[in-house]
Design a protein that fits this description.
By secondary structure, this protein is an alpha/beta fold. About 40% of the residues lie in helices and about 25% in strands. Helix 3 crosses helix 4, helix 5 packs parallel to helix 6 and helix 12 runs antiparallel to helix 13. The structure holds adenosine-5'-diphosphate and magnesium ion (MG).
Length: about 325
């Protein structure tokens, strides 16, 4: 049987020569949750739009629940639930009415749709607010309703595009719990996109890290981190040092590898960080380039991204959006 989602070599160029997807391939198994992790502008929403038949790729193929998204979009639409990055709920209608309308759109009958709405309102903790207009809901309640809306017609494949962006920490935690529970439901496959490293770490059993429209690394969060043997060493200067000279100094130290210099920051890998740092600092001191700060850490997903994309996740997020607000949002939750 075909996988829940199979995408192969997706390419999408928007007007203005923006290459949003550059040969993206993913596979999501039945009952699996795949996290598509990438900075803003990486191509996550474009991937979701293609797989949910909203836009067509320039090249590549994709099937959802065995149906070709280009040849059988009608069949694809029947088996998927979509929670897009922006809320699809009608703010002037109540939560219950939104759910009932959604069910009717999918051809569900009166009694069935009311039963299903009640079930979802309970499940997502929206019973008390069921009769209130959605515009009175908190951000977290609204997002939970969005997920409930995506589930009304019992889809087999669910797309969650940045389900927790903009939520406060408490609402995020409650959404995480919901998503984890959904993933436990048998047979529901979930493609979850996120630009939060901690969210990807926490929720996705398997991760595909996307950078500039391609999957650059794939695996369980632990396996991805495990591939980066040893510890991560991070150094910082007050001003960007001379890169070739820094590299030359560190190159003479045994066991220091994968050096990546990014302005005034440097990351490297070592077998034993605690042992390596004093030697690294002493060598830099001696060369007249004393570091202002040094930290040692077990590898994080940020290190995984750095390794495969060649730049820090938060920096990529800023670069792609150019927006200070986004930068704060991305940096604040790491
Ligand atoms: N309708 C569009 N027209 C032109 N460019 C677009 C459009 N939608 C997205 N893009 C660009 O395509 C790239 C990928 O966007 P998107 O898929 O939304 O990324 P993500 O969801 O990962 O933030 C970005 O550079 C974005 O600006
Ligand atoms: Mg997006």
């Amino acid at each position: 049987m075909a996988h829940a989602i199979e995408a192969d070599g997706l390419v999408k160029t928007y007007p203005g020569d923006v290459r949003a997807l550059d040969g993206l391939s993913i596979i999501v198994g039945h009952g699996e949750i795949l996290g598509l992790l990438g900075p803003n502008g990486a191509g996550k929403s474009t991937t979701v739009k293609i797989l949910t038949t909203l836009i067509r790729p320039d090249a590549g193929t994709a099937t959802v629940a065995g149906h070709d998204v280009l040849r059988r979009p009608d069949r694809v639409r029947r088996v998927i639930g979509v929670v897009s990055q922006r809320s699809g709920a009608d703010p002037e209608a109540s939560g219950r009415d939104n759910l009932v309308l959604q069910g009717r759109l999918y051809g569900m009958g009166g009694a069935e749709v009311r039963r299903r709405a009640a079930e979802l309102l309970e499940r997502f903790g929206l019973e008390e607010a069921a009769s209130r207009k959605v515009k009175t809901y908190s951000g977290g309640m609204r997002r939970r309703l969005d997920v409930a809306l995506g589930l009304v017609h019992r889809p087999r494949v669910l797309f969650l595009d940045e389900p927790t962006t903009g939520l406060d920490p408490e609402a995020r935690a409650s959404m995480w719990a919901e998503i984890a529970r959904l993933a436990g439901d048998d047979a529901l496959a979930i493609l979850l996109t996120t630009h939060y490293l901690d969210e990807a770490d926490r929720l996705a059993r398997r991760l595909a890290i996307v950078d500039r429209g391609r999957v650059v690394a794939e695996g369980t969060p632990d396996a991805l981190k495990g591939e980066l043997h040893g510890d991560a060493v991070h150094l910082e200067w007050r001003e960007a040092p001379d890169e070739p000279r820094v590299r030359a100094v560190l190159g003479r130290l045994p066991g220091v590898r994968d050096v990546i210099v990014d302005g005034p920051r440097l990351s490297a890998r070592t077998d034993d960080g605690a042992a390596a740092v004093p030697a690294v600092l002493a060598a830099l001191d001696q060369a007249g380039m004393p570091a202002a700060a040094a930290t040692v850490a077990r590898p994080s997903l940020d290190d995984v991204y750095l390794r495969y994309a060649g730049r820090r996740f938060a920096q990529a997020d800023v670069a792609e959006t150019g927006g200070a607000a986004e930068a704060v949002a991305a940096g604040g939750v790491r």
